[in-house]
Design brief:
Elements lengths: L18 H14 L5 H13 L3 H6 L7 H15 L4 H5 L1 E4 L2 E4 L12 H13 L8 E5 L5 H9 L4 E6 L2 H13 L6 E5 L10 E6 L14 H4 L4 H4 L7 H13 E10 L5 H10 L2 E8 L5 E8 L2
Parallel strand pairs: 3-4, 3-6, 4-5, 6-7
Antiparallel strand pairs: 1-2, 7-9, 8-9
The protein binds S-adenosylmethionine.
């Protein structure tokens, strides 16, 4: 295969290619560009550009690309080579089996955040409250991932998601509507739980928890494409926990639960913040890599 540059200057690198050839060329360029999953990314990007699923892509492999199709593939490829995550190119990411829209103001929901959902459901099940009309808040809701996952599992629960980004709240609201959960989900722009009233049965949060000085060293996909306010946890990465802990103490019902996501190695520090705010840490849940990822706490009597 002749090597033609993807970042073309007026020249379209995929012009004259079949679908299959474009896919192979793209995978090769992605491999040379050091991407982790070049074949998979190439398949998804070509499929997305052409509006074809996996089966149709294979069936039409020998079809020649039209000029506009070649141009669409080239544009997406250049973005991926600049390390923009595939989910941002598609504008969607799956979380807890739910298809969620994302935008530039929302974090891409992460698989490890599902640990927070698991910990919250375990806490609810321990109290035998899965079928009750639970009142839930998701502080820093982003795309709505945590709140919508919980509402999808707890059929009588209602919840509110807060965020300081109105664009993120718009995305979360659209996701709630698309999932048929909008009647049980509300969204509000405020500083974590500051504008909320209790009592609440369950508060969940995946707050920004990267120490500010560490942001520059994050992988490019995260550092350059996740919104800064979804990452920046202040000088020591703990600012959001300090804000959330007293709010949770005020908002939680006496038998309510707070479940937060933790950054790597942050368990002890977050525990101390919670205890100082009158919350008793009651459980820790590991993610699939064995990292302490979710901390559950309850109001001290
Ligand atoms: C790490 S992201 C988590 C998003 C989503 N919950 C998830 O797990 O995918 C943190 C979110 O908190 C929001 N945020 C940051 N500071 C906030 C604040 N003071 N009050 C409310 N939301 C805030 C950000 O805009 C971002 O959406």
């Amino acid at each position: 295969m002749t090597r033609r540059p993807l970042a073309s200057s007026g020249h379209d690198p995929f012009a004259g290619d079949s679908i299959g050839a474009a896919r192979r060329r793209l995978a090769l360029e992605f491999r040379r560009g050091g991407l982790d999953a070049p074949e998979l990314d190439a398949r998804i990007i070509v499929g997305h550009a052409l509006g074809l699923d996996h089966t149709a892509l294979a069936a039409q492999s020998s079809r020649m690309l039209a000029a506009d199709e070649a141009g669409a593939i080239a544009a997406l490829s250049a973005r991926r080579l600049a390390r923009e995550p595939v989910a941002r190119l598609l504008g969607r990411k799956e979380f807890w089996g739910l298809p969620l829209k994302v935008n530039a103001e929302t974090l891409l929901p992460r698989p490890e955040t599902e640990t927070v959902v698991e910990a919250a459901l375990t806490a609810v099940d321990c109290d035998d409250r899965r079928w009750r009309a639970l009142r839930i808040a998701d502080l820093g809701t982003g795309s709505g991932a945590l709140l919508l996952a919980l509402l999808s599992e707890l059929p009588h629960a209602r919840g509110i998601g807060t965020d300081i980004s109105r664009a993120a709240l718009g995305c979360a609201r659209a996701n709630a509507a698309a999932l048929g959960l909008v009647d049980r989900a509300a969204f509000a722009a405020c500083d974590f739980g500051a504008a909320l009233n209790g009592p609440l049965d369950l508060i969940v949060a995946n707050p920004p928890y990267v120490a500010r000085a560490d942001i520059a060293a994050l992988e490019v996909e995260v550092r350059d494409f996740d919104p800064p306010r979804a990452l920046d946890g202040g000088p020591d990465g703990l600012a959001a926990y300090r804000a959330i802990a007293p709010q949770a103490r005020r908002l939680l019902a006496p038998d309510g639960n707070l479940v937060v996501e933790l950054g790597f190695g942050r368990l002890a520090a977050v525990r101390s913040i919670f205890v100082a705010a009158g919350l008793a840490p009651v459980a820790v849940r590991h993610d699939l890599s064995g990292v302490d990822r979710a901390l559950v706490a309850r109001p001290l009597p």
